[in-house]
Amino acid sequence: MKDSLSVLKSLPPIATLVTLTAVVIMFTLGVWQLNRAEQKQQRLAHIATVSQQQGISPTQALSQPDWRDMPVIVDGQWLDPWFLIDNKLHRGQPGYYVVRLLDSTEGVIAVNLGWIAAPRQRDVLPTLPQADPLLPLTGVAWQVTDNPMIRETATVSAEPEWPVRLQQIDLAVMGKWAGLPLMPLVVLSDARDNSPYVREWQPVVMPPEKHIAYAIQWFGMALACMVVFVVAVRRKNRQ
């Protein structure tokens, strides 16, 4: 007991506090990365399962416990509102996601038609295809995730000029612009031949293996930090 107390007293308080704090933070980040890897593995397994199913209506998809990535089929009439979702890259080239509203018998649905390149001049909007996408349209159900770092600042106009440029897909903001309530999902349109839009959706951008690699790095850094601290304390005590 006395030996333990003497060892504790010999530890430099500030260096000990900083080291323990750093180790706890790095260990926590490692555990978080492992949890993210498990979530990605479950998501990929879910995608593999639902991709084999036939397309269902958006209402049927929303009735499922986990409706993300469910194949859906939508029909109805295209509405006037167009939205350009800014700052979307495709193979390093800047562009927009083009989102249009569809009036179906189940409600108004936001459909992401895909990516289109942006003009070189920032104040010039891209020329959108005149022909409406053919209906019925197939795709997958996508759940909107809010980016807390983005806050829309555009003032909603009673008579907007379409298309409206937004920083992210926000169904509440888009509903205000259109003056319509929107269903709580977005349909990612399937790829079609001769389409002017690029549709290469990536539901899982970072694979589970990369999260595991990051976790190993954090655990390794935590261990290295402890080893360096112990070695430094022993050398100090010897001196």
Automatic annotation (TrEMBL):
Location in the cell: Cell membrane; Membrane
Transmembrane residue ranges: 14-34, 211-233
PROSITE patterns: SURF1
Record Pfam families: SURF1 (PF02104)
InterPro entries cross-referenced by the UniProt entry: Surf1/Shy1, Surf1/Surf4
Domain of life: Bacteria
Keywords for the protein's UniProt record, in alphabetical order: Cell membrane, Membrane, Transmembrane, Transmembrane helix
Membrane topology value: Multi-pass membrane protein
Protein family: Belongs to the SURF1 family.
Protein name: SURF1-like protein
Taxonomic source organism: Fluctibacter halophilus
